[in-house]
Design a protein that fits this description.
The protein has about 675 residues and is α+β, with helices and mostly antiparallel strands. The strands form eleven sheets. A three-stranded antiparallel sheet has the order 5-6-7, with no helix packed on it. Strands 1-2 form a two-stranded antiparallel ribbon. It has a two-stranded antiparallel sheet with strand order 3-4. β14 and β15 form a beta hairpin. The relative contact order is 0.03.
């Protein structure tokens, strides 16, 4: 059966691609717009004239001849848009020329395409496609080496006439198609990777430069000799294999063995491997799996012994030096950059501390050996001691901290009896310790405050600390907030308005703070279960997790107060919809019911006639109680029964469902098999 005829295609005069006769009218405007955008990006010297669609006069024969002539002219127009390479002369699209010129250098131009080997021919003819209508079978007895001869019948044509793609004369031998060989590759003698015969000349100098940089970073005991490119005398494919074998052995000799498992790795990968290598006892005559694959197996099969790389110790960690100011680790080169900056930062932080906490400027320790060289370990030990001397102890627990971290620590430090402990907020675990007492003995001026901040004043309402200027702004706002929160509390929890402490004789700042702290504590409310005191807005949060222990009554603080029954919070009355059975407020039910009835009618009309239900009627229950109000419970019961009557019963299990949920249920509810 002959193959179906191939559809006619038309060539775009801008890009040279083939499209269908209907698609071309859509493609050409978009292709021209893209061409203009790319052309505007080119330098002025490379910009091209706007291509013009070729006009072909119709021929006498018409038909496919006109289409072929137009395609040829469009192809020539598209080829005229290509830009030639200055080095090799090949033509490329403007956006591909730059990519090509990365590898095509003036000194080493790429080999230009030969005529007849592909691409555009010398005549600039358009590459054509051929449809085979009578394919021939290639017989195995006609194969000669890599050449394949196609056996064909003599075409019925004029003797001596050569048609396109076929030979009809007996004087010419039929063309023999040669199978394309695999492209040859060459191994790099440094890294062992595969490259093309042209690419290897570009890669090897760059690879050698990279190898030297990595080798210089290794310890002296692990540095390797510069690899030498192997040379094989003679030519031919056999010698390429031998050269690749020698290059592979050269690349394998650059690897370093792991002390734990004996496997070999590149220097930059060895450190990564050793993080997870758990092999105990080191490499005791193990044959690593990584070195027994690839080309080493080929050499062993042929009787050649693969060279064993020299074993050397794993790369040690780089030497580090401690900073004598902060005690952090740095490289031997980085520490010289870090120390001046760290000292400048130390001076700024030290100047912010109170005078009683300021420390003398640290000095860099110098430890020399007998030979006049620095002892790094002894120097690091002295630097560590110097950095530890800069820390400030906590008054509560005695631990040492940096000045900027001490304030953070004291927020949660509970103290161990060595000091007064940190400042406690209202509702904390130590309600008996005031902020003034936490900073030092009574009557202190506040210079020994470990926080290192300015002297503060305690608010008599909330107990928080503020500056002497800020307290006058805070107290009126805090009192207004207190009044709003106090009005929201139940009557039994409401407290009298706090008054600012005033004494007849002048008091010191610490004594005023002590009185303000006691006044703020009196505003707290004790928990009935554990006795701890909390602010009113925090007590409810605490009681969610604080439950009374079984067999234990309330705390002493709660037992001292007269027990009052908790207030009963009544649930707002709700009305049940007589159609869907859901609950709504007394105001919302009048809005919901008309909409629910409309929705019910739409769903009911979609059901089969056998399942359609009568329209529900709102029940009228007008029972009036003794107080002259309607009996809402009776109305809700009647509405709920009416809503249940709208449900449909499942034929398998007997359960009732809404009409839109019944099909979903029946997907998994199957009838039970009858009992035998």
């Amino acid at each position: 059966m002959p193959a179906p005829p191939r559809k006619k295609t038309v060539v775009c005069y801008i890009c040279g691609r083939e499209f269908g006769s209907q698609s071309l009218s859509i493609h050409e405007p978009q292709c021209l717009k893209k061409w203009k955008a790319e052309n505007d990006k080119l330098p002025k010297s490379q910009r091209r004239k706007t291509p013009v669609r070729p006009q072909i006069l119709p021929s006498i024969e018409g038909g496919g001849a006109d289409n072929e002539r137009f395609n040829e002219a469009a192809w020539q127009s598209a080829q005229a848009q290509l830009v030639p390479c200055e080095n090799c002369g090949r033509t490329f699209a403007p956006d591909r020329l730059q990519i090509h010129q990365r590898g095509c250098k003036p000194g080493k131009p790429m080999q230009p395409l030969k005529a007849g080997t592909g691409g555009t021919s010398d005549k600039g003819d358009r590459p054509r496609t051929t449809t085979i209508t009578d394919p021939k079978v290639v017989k195995s007895e006609n194969a000669i080496g890599d050449k394949t001869v196609r056996v064909e019948k003599q075409a019925e044509a004029t003797p001596g006439l050569e048609k396109e793609g076929t030979f009809t004369t007996s004087k010419k031998d039929p063309p023999m198609s040669k199978a394309p060989p695999n492209p040859g590759f060459v191994l790099c003698y440094i890294c062992g990777r595969k490259f093309g015969t042209k690419s290897i000349d570009i890669h090897e100098p760059q690879c050698l430069e990279k190898w030297r940089k990595e080798n210089a970073q290794l310890p002296k005991s692990q540095r390797r000799k510069t690899p030498v490119k192997p040379e094989i005398v003679g030519g031919g494919s056999n010698n390429i294999e031998a050269m690749n074998e020698a290059a592979w052995q050269s690349a394998q000799s650059q690897l370093l063995p792991c002390d734990g498992c004996g496997r070999t790795f590149a220097p930059d990968r060895l450190a990564v491997h050793q993080r997870a290598c758990k092999a105990p006892g080191g490499a005791k005559g193990k044959t690593p799996a990584a070195t027994s694959t690839g080309r080493s197996s080929q050499s062993s099969a042929t009787g050649g012994a693969s060279p064993t790389p020299k074993k050397s110790s794993a790369p040690a960690q780089p030497q580090f030096v401690l900073c004598y100011i902060c005690g952090r680790k740095f490289g031997s080169k980085s520490v010289a950059i870090h120390e001046p900056q760290c000292l400048e930062k130390w001076k700024i932080e030290n100047s912010k501390l109170p005078k009683g906490q300021r420390r003398p400027e640290p000095k860099k320790p110098e430890v020399l050996q007998s030979g006049g060289k620095y002892d790094v370990e002894a120097m690091n030990e002295a630097a560590w001691q110097s950095a530890q001397a800069q820390l400030i102890p906590c008054d509560g627990c005695g631990r040492t901290f940096a000045p900027d971290r001490l304030a953070v620590h004291q927020r949660s430090c509970k103290g161990t009896g060595k000091g007064a402990g940190p400042t406690n907020k209202p509702g904390g675990t130590n309600p008996g310790v005031s902020p003034a007492a936490s900073t030092g003995p009574a009557g202190s001026t506040g210079k020994g405050d470990p926080k290192g901040g300015p002297r503060t004043v305690v608010c008599y309402i909330c107990g928080r600390e503020f500056g002497s200027k800020s307290i006058s702004i805070h107290e009126p706002q805090c009192l207004e907030k207190w009044k709003n929160e106090n009005n929201k509390l139940p009557k039994e929890r409401r407290r009298p308005i706090p008054k600012k402490p005033e004494a007849g004789q002048p008091l010191t700042r610490d004594q005023m703070n002590e009185l303000a702290w006691e006044n703020a504590k009196s505003q707290l409310i004790p928990c009935e279960n554990c006795g701890r005191t909390f602010a009113p807005d925090r007590l409810d949060v605490h009681q969610r997790a604080c439950k009374p222990k079984p067999g234990q009554g309330p705390s002493k603080a709660a037992a001292a107060e007269p027990s009052k029954p908790p207030p009963v919070i009544k649930r707002p009355p709700t009305m049940v919809c007589y159609i869907c059975g859901r609950e709504f407020g007394s105001k919302s039910i009048s809005i919901h019911e008309p909409q629910c009835l409309e929705k019910w009618k739409i769903e009911n009309n979609k059901l089969p006639k056998s399942q359609r239900r009568p329209e529900p009627i709102k029940p009228e229950v007008r029972k009036i109680g003794a107080k002259g109000t309607y009996d809402i419970d009776a109305m809700n019961d009647a509405a709920y029964e009416s809503a249940k009557a709208q449900l449909l019963k499942c034929e398998n299990c007997g359960r009732t469902f809404a009409p839109d949920r019944l099909p979903v249920h029946q997907r998994s509810c199957k009838p039970k098999p009858p009992k035998e």
